Amino acid sequence: METQTKQRNSFSGSLGFVLASAGSAVGLGNIWRFPYLAAKDGGGLFLFVYLILALTFGFTLLITEVTIGRKTQESPLTAYKKINPKWGFLGIFSFIVPFLIYPYYCVIGGWVLKYAFSYLAFQGSVAVENGYFGGFITSQWQPIFYTVLFAALSFIIVYKGVEHGIERYSKILMPILVIIVVFIAAYSLFISHTDDSGATRTGLQGAAVYFIPSFKGLTFKGFLTVCLDAMGQLFYSLSIAMGIMIAYGSYMKKEVNLNKSVNQIEIFDTGIALLAGMMIVPAVFVFSGKEGMSAGPGLMFITLPKVFNSLGGIGEFIGLIFFVMVLFAALTSAVSILEAITSSMIDKFKWSRRRSAVVMAASTFVISVIVCLGYNVLYFEQKMPNGSIGQILDILDYLSNNILMPIVSFLTCVLIGWIAKPKTAIDEITRNGERFIRKGLYIVMIKVIAPVLLFVILLTGLGLF
Predict the structure, then answer these.
(1) Of 8, 72, 279, 378, which is most buried with the most CB atoms under 10 A?
(2) Does 303 fall in a domain?
(3) Residue 2 included in any domain
(4) Is residue 238 part of a domain?
(5) pTM higher than 0.85 for the full model?
(6) CATH code, domain with 154
(7) Does the pLDDT at position 5 exceed 60?
């Protein structure tokens, strides 16, 4: 039986914490959701709003969760009760979120793995055929097979523990991911294409669409939509309200500069998100124009393979390294989600890491299979309160991202801002005499502004705003 002591302060230092946390933050949301929203919401306008919110709203929620973890040395399920005995219920919510997200995240990770294998086998040209993606996800056994492979990779890393599993693999995967992202982003800027009408579009023109703000037809309601999209994206980008940062914070050594580490995560994550946009927006613009960006979630599995196919022989290679990069990003995020629920079992029931990882991986895999079957034998359509229509995967995504995550973050702000008081967090942030430059901003955000914004996000998710 492993002892509780082995589960805490296990990151070797600041670098291990930052890379693991950044790996969690840099996931599928950064790779396809961020570029899609940027293109939809006026390019540079979305980027400007996102950066402002990342430095204020996102920073407040991120540093609060890391602080709760390090202060209590507990996982999300048990940490809130240690802050205030009457708030243990919030830990249950914080556990449910990653428990709901992990199963369908593994399914999507399986989709990425399928495409990576396709390009590895020089079958990228097949991936552009109409109905390829739909045919794959609606088949009964293929999605389950690839989900098993992806989930197994995540399980092995978590099973090995924090320092020898999560930290070690993050130090390998994250540098490789950055190199690939930079390469594809640079390559996208210099491609060009002439369509049937004789019009030529270049990657640099696509970059202009991405970076230069567009105010054409912008209304107050439209600007509000941009702000809500940017706030929603921050949940994906910074792994907020998933219990992840509480778990990772609990593994941070007390002598590590917490504020500096969180700043580094912000910089790393925002940089990758911007580069993801540079990878995708110019390339899609060159071959599909602005209309191509309307693909939304289908952008990565339907539109981009067509872009790679248009590049000729090198397209197979670009497609391969792109999906390998997405696979790395998905894997580092999946590992952090599984770790959040695994650590909760360790702290709540005093189980060993091995037992906790096996139980959580097995129970969530059952849900993953149900999600896969939701596109064939268990197929049905459900309309959500916000007007969206979807299957089992979409329902789990809606419940976790539109309802539970805003509730968790809202109540966390109430707990730290009004019940335990901001001093509880600030004392932990500055425990080694560190300077907290954004202290005043933090107090205002945690007490007033962040709760209001989160309440608006919740109302929007419920279709009431």
Answers:
(1) 279
(2) yes
(3) no
(4) yes
(5) yes
(6) 1.10.4160.10
(7) no
* 252-311: pLDDT as tens digits: 989 999 999 999 988 888 888 888 888 888 888 888 777 666 566 567 887 788 888 877
Q: What is the 3-state secondary structure (H, E, C) of the chain?
A: CCCHHHHCCCCCCHHHHHHHHHHHHCCHHHHHHHHHHHHHCCEHHHHHHHHHHHHHHHHHHHHHHHHHHHHHCCCHHHHHHHHCHHHHHHHHHHHHHHHHHHHHHHHHHHHHHHHHHHHHCCCCCHHHCCCHHHHHHHCCCHHHHHHHHHHHHHHHHHHCCHHHHHHHHHHHHHHHHHHHHHHHHHHHHCCEEECCCCCEEEHHHHHHHHHCECCCCCCHHHHHHHHHHHHHHHHHHHCCCCCHHHHHHHCCCCCCCHHHHHHHHHHHHHHHHHHHHHHHHHHHHHHHCHHHHHHHHHHCCCHHHHHHHHCCHHHHHHHHHHHHHHHHHHHHHHHHHHHHHHHHHHHHHCCCHHHHHHHHHHHHHHHHHHHHHCCCCCCCCEECCCCCEECHHHHHHHHHHHHHHHHHHHHHHHHHHHHCCHHHHHHHHCCCCCCCCCHHHHHHHHHHHHHHHHHHHHHHHCCCC
- Cβ(191)–Cβ(282) below 8 Å: yes
For residue 53, give its domain range. 14-461
Domain count, the chain: 1
pLDDT for 7:
43
Residue 1, in any domain of the structure: no
Q: How far apart are CA 459 and CA 455, in angstroms?
A: 6
Per-residue model confidence (pLDDT) at position 277: 86
pLDDT digit string (tens) for 40-67?
787 789 999 999 999 999 999 999 999 9
Q: Which range among 11-20, 239-248, 273-282, 305-314 shows the weakest confidence by mean pLDDT?
A: 11-20
